[in-house]
Amino acid sequence: IDHEVGSAIPDADGNWTSTALSLQPGEHTLRVYVQWRGLLSTLLERRFYSRPPKPVLLEPIIPSPRQSLQISGVLAGATLKVYNVAGQVTGNVISGSRYLFTPAQDWTLGEQSVWVTQQVAGVTSNRSDDVTFFVSPLAPVINEPVDKSHQPFEVHLSGTCRVGATVYVLAIDGNILVKAQVDGNGWIARHRWQVPGEAGVQVMQVVNDVDSAKSPARAFFIKPDPPSIALVANPAAPAQTLQISHVYPSAATLQMLRDDDTPIPGIFTGTGSERVFTPAQDWSFGKHTVKVFQVVNSVASDASEARVICVQPLPLTIIQPPNPA
Questions:
Q1: What is the pLDDT of residues 13-52, one digit of tens each?
Q2: C-alpha separations of 296 from 222, 269, 270, 275 in Å
């Protein structure tokens, strides 16, 4: 108001279109008059509002439950409002080269359609183009077993998840091993492996029929059960052999140890779940505490229960001297 912002030349029918008006967003009062041969017509006054341009909402690449949204085309001092089908979405806005909107609460899981407006000088822009993205729950967390730990055949697994989720323990190939029990935001499960060696699992959760991504893989090792040494009658013979049972029946390597973990040289014979250990040298006189472990698929078992071998010198024999001596 009170300064010229544009001009127009009417056509033959008296219609006119002004030159482009450079107006800031907000309320404006425009006065138009006609000048002819130095005379001015009565002013025609018209009040209207100039909208700010609609902002641009950028589609997130990998949406998460608390996904922030980038917004461009925002005027200085503008108030941004983000909406979905449920109404306005509350959250925080951080300004920068692009504005960043972070919702105060997690997005509803599943497909989301959102848009944004900006308000400048009390005037709201048209809504931006809608952006549609799909929100999955975060992957649950594995707490146990610890990475690279050694576990028995039956493994206890546990971790955290979203309240109300259904949690599945998966093999690395994606097949479901077991459905976990969920209590609040925690889950537990047990699964028995059949073969010693390296193993690994992942977990995923389902919330409101929406699948999460898989968790990072957790690797651990399944230990073979410890073998067992049969009781030895004491005192034992210097060449005493030892009977070993509970040997893993396929490709097990055994090692006999003293109580200080020093290896005892010797050979194991036999097949299947039982073996016989023959020491490379006779047992020395005295007490020997021994134990054995087995290695299967590069994973060692715990040591067996220790056994004690007592070897005594052979009793002396007095040869009857000839009589008369």
A1: 878 888 888 888 988 888 888 877 778 788 788 888 889 9
A2: 10, 17, 17, 15
Nearest to 285 by CA among 309, 318, 256, 306: 309
Query: For residue 317, what are the contacts with CB-CB under 8 A and spacing of at least 6?
Result: none
Cis-peptide, bond into residue 196, ω within 30° of zero: no
Burial 258-289 (b: 16+ CB within 10 A, else e): eeeeeebebebeeeeeebebebeeebeeeebe
Other C-beta atoms within 10 Å of 120: how many?
A: 20
- What is the rounded CA–CA span in Å between residue 12 and residue 205? 73
Pairing status of strand 218-222 against strand 307-311:
unpaired
Give tens-digit pLDDT for 67-106: 999 999 999 989 999 999 999 999 999 987 789 999 999 9
Please state the pTM of the whole predicted model.
0.70
C-alpha to C-alpha distance for 159 and 222, rounded to whole angstroms: 19
Is 75 within 8 Å of 61 (Cβ atoms)?
no
* Chain Cα centroid distance, residue 188: 16
Maximum C-alpha span of the chain: 174
| Residue labelled with tokens 């309320």 | 27
Q: Each residue of 299-311: pLDDT tens digit?
A: 999 999 999 999 9
Q: How does DSSP assign 226-282, residue by residue? A: P-EEPP--SSBPTT--EEEES--SSS-EEEEEETTS-B--EEEE--TT-EEEEESSP
